[in-house]
Design a protein that fits this description.
The structure holds two protein chains of two kinds. By secondary structure, chain A is an alpha+beta fold. Chain A contains 15 helices and 19 strands. Chain A is elongated, with a radius of gyration of 34 Å. Chain B contains nine helices and six strands; from the N terminus they run H-E-H-E-H-E-E-H-E-H-H-E-H-H-H. Chain B has a four-stranded antiparallel β-sheet. In chain B, strands 1-6 form a two-stranded parallel ribbon. Chain B is α+β, with helices and mostly antiparallel strands. Classes of the chains: A alpha+beta, B alpha+beta.
Amino acid sequence: MLQIDLWKRILIWLTVAAGLLLAAPNGFYTRVETANDARQAIEAAGETPERLAEANGWPSFLPSGLVNLGLDLRGGAHLLAELPLSDVYEKRMIALWPEVRDALRQERATVGTVRRQSIELAELKVQISQPEGMERALQVVRALARPVSSTNLNTLGANDIEVTGVGNTITISLSEAERLATDDRTMQQSLEIIRRRIDEVGTREPTIQRQGDNRILIQVPGLGSAAELKSLIGTTAQLTFHSVENVTSDADARPGVGNILAPAIDEEGLFYVLDENPVVTGEELVDAQPAFDQNGGPAVNFRFNASGGAKFGRYTAENVGAPFAIVLDNEVISAPRINEAILGGSGIISGNFTLAESTELAVLLRAGALPVEPEFVEERTIGPELGQDSIDAGRIACIVAFIAVLVFMGLSYGMFGIFANVALIINVGLIFGLLSLIGATLTLPGIAGIVLTIGMAVDANVLVFERIREEIKAGKGPARAIEQGYEKALSAIIDANITTFITAVILFVMGSGPVRGFSITLGLGIITSVFTAIYVTRLLLVMWFERRRPKTIEV
Amino acid sequence: MRLKLVPSETNWDFFSRSKLWLGISGALIVVAFVSFLIQGLNFGIDFQGGTTVRTNAEAPVDIAAYRGALDPLDLGDVSITEVFDPQFGADENVAMIRIQAQEGEEAASADLVENVTNALQALDPTLKIEAVESVGPKVSGELIQTAVIAVVLAIGAVLVYIWLRFEWQFALGAVAALVHDVVLTIGIFSELQIRFDLAIIAALLTIVGYSLNDTVVVFDRVRENLRRYKQKDLKGVLNLSINETLSRTVMTSVTTLLALISLYVLGGDVIRGFVFAMIWGVIIGTYSSIFVASTTLLILGVKRDWSKPTDGGPAGTQFGTTES
């Protein structure tokens, strides 16, 4: 009556063994972590006896996946940055203006003089003095349009700008397709640049993820504070070189069309009027290194790529004697006079830097400029000590909860309780095994999820045992009672666990951060506890029964 | 010898005072609502925006002195609470400082954190900042929205699942119990002004899951007994089913509570609010699956004949007529 096929038994034990094996590395967390790090280092930088010794601390034939510890357990910084994507549209329009101007000037006979009216809400408005030439003007401007470069098939063949003309005003704006493509590019670029900047600092396992349409989540374990992280990624680090039109001390001075007003970074009350369109930008930099200027002050050495170097060379050759401004994020770092043409494509930026500032600036310039300035909408810093305290407290709570439940089950169900306890121990092992397998992150609420699972995991067993008791009371023999107990309890177990699983799934989909961590352990806990209750405890019971063949059983 | 929390044979009548229980539940729900309307919830920064700073100093926390140190910074609404935990040593004096969202800013600026740190360290050089969390008003608005959607979705999904597996009366009974649990849990957080943050939403959903678990086990037995005892009236079947599953209900609640209580006492202060919600939920959830879900089912009545289509008669009054 009570029979389980041999292949099923083997399968059950294999599953259990595999789960426990996967969970094993977590029992030796530090050792495995050091070994994993050492192996990575060997791959990246070659073998040293030290690294080899560390790598051998954990045998390579054993699984080495670990449960990642969340920021609340390990300590570190968490930032949620929002990118104002529409800022890019305006920049595009500013860059488009000279093109439009030059194209229309060639048609001066038909369109008359051309004047830029405004750039607002990512719309470039251009006035022409001869409205009757509008048709020709639109033709010329539309010819500047380029097909949208995007991987999205829907936008295939669409143009990047939309041009309309009313009266004597031409309005140019980005097309919907181009906006989408631009948004996507901006996000990709920002992710890449943020990743590069963080990698330059060299912390371990940062998480950099896109969230929603315009947000980026950055988590860096072990970093002292979110403020540090913010200074690293909060600046766009847009380096540009402009020609200087004028110098003023009036903060409200009107720079005039096509010019911008930029303050000096180290001199209060000094403002430069600059040509809005830069001669060269930081995008054409290939390298930047901290260095010292001729006076021994910290500075940054930079080198342009070929086209940047050529542009810079041409400009300096044409403007010997005139000042030009080195501008970082709309602040003038310095405005030296051009003494001679700079043809080598490299130069030096000196200002009132400290050594740390020049080093950071070099990092930022190397990693590239962010297309827009991020705004931080959420930040969390957890000190490593608080994290360690939480781990310790969680561990103790888990152990105590575990023992309390084991003792209670033993007292309540005797022999059967012991079987349930063995299954419970296997259950917790399986949860950790699965967590390691999928590389999930354990958070503080996640630990609570495990503790809750410990409490609830016995539920399926309790359902079965109570049912067996009832069957025995109804006068059934031991084997029949066990069999019926399992059979009849099954629908309750399945229904009860599916409903809980539904809520875990909803938590996973809707939640973020720690809540999601909780939903993962809860969901996995449900799967493993159903498995252990239906298969493992039952197998243990059957094996015991086959050996003893008791005439009566007491549950 | 076995430890038995419930006698092996019980025959208690759970519905003799059903009006009393429903009255108590109703009264508690009213109290919860009134408290919610008058006091509101003590929303954490997850839902309200703002910054919290957790400090740890060797000298005892002097709230008035902390406040005095922060006053010149002109931060608007600042609340300072001392955190107690049995595991803190004598030189661990922890305080939570909550600062309202600053005008014109999303998350806290580096300056704000630095100013607060400097002001407090001037007061007590041993003071360390253990954690800083800051949530902008934009994000917190979204978090509330997602949280509400999550709870509603969870209840809706459960309603549909039980409807599919049982009958609509069962689904309504279960959902009545769930709403009861959620309202009372939010109520106690409002009543005691415990901080209500994102983790509490997770706790709420777990309570939904747990309470449901309990309810489903009872209902599963009701369904079985309805088929087996066709002569018994619904009240008798419900009573029998609750009595039969009582031992299991108590066992599971006790094991879960054992685990949760150890977490509450030993798990540290960071998750204490979360664990409190769960403990409360387990107690309320166990109560509600018997007294709210089953009573609702009794009031709604159930179609007894599972094999024939309904003949349109009033539900719950068909027993006896279906015997063939």
